[in-house]
Amino acid sequence: MTIYYSLTFMLLAAEMGTFCALVAPLPYAVRKRLFRFLSESPIVAKIAYGLKISFIFVGILFADALQRMFRVTAEADLGKGRGQGMQDVRTETNFAARKFYAQRNVYLTGFTLFLSLVLTRTFYIILDLIHTQEEYAKLKQETAGKSRSAGAGAGGGAAEGDKKVIEELKKRLAASEAKERDFETLKKQASQNAAEYDNLATKYNAATGQNSDKRRD
């Protein structure tokens, strides 16, 4: 295998390892840090730019390998049609080897290009998922904070309402107690007036010598 196909194979192996790392069941915190590093690091951005250029060359190799495979297949079919394959085993073996190498190069370069597209799409899907999870967590925290604030505000309003009711009841109780005190004072004054009237009536009857029962209970 030539050097450029060897480099293509190394690139394919690196893509396979990267894909396994991306889809591995990592913890959320580790995956978040990893994708943040991959998406924000300037070094990774430079590497990605170099890989884009290399994929252009891989695409050229894919087109060349595909053309070679078609040409070798056509030559092999032409040789079989003429009957040369049955007469010369070495020629048939040579055609089979050329066809195998052409197909191998097509598969190698094709899978490298295909996996690059899969890696790019998978990376952005997972990155969008992480951003969505972050937004959901922030929205959940904001909703919980608003709920607590609303609950605290409702509790404060209820406490203020209770204070007002208590103050009103205290005022009514104080007014009732004042009225009761006034009633007790008036009752005492009435009792004292009745006792004084009875005393004066008794003295009047004793002075006049009349036996009159005009006292009130």
Structural overview:
The chain is mainly α and 217 residues long. It has one domain (3-160). The chain is 92% helix and 0% strand. It contains five helices and no strands. Helix 1 (3-23) runs parallel beside helix 5 (89-208) and helix 3 (42-82) packs antiparallel against helix 5. Residues 1-138 form the BAP29/BAP31 transmembrane domain. May play a role in anterograde transport of membrane proteins from the endoplasmic reticulum to the Golgi. Keywords: Coiled coil, Endoplasmic reticulum, ER-Golgi transport, Membrane, Protein transport, Transmembrane, Transmembrane helix, Transport. The chain crosses the membrane at residues 7-27, 47-66, 106-127.
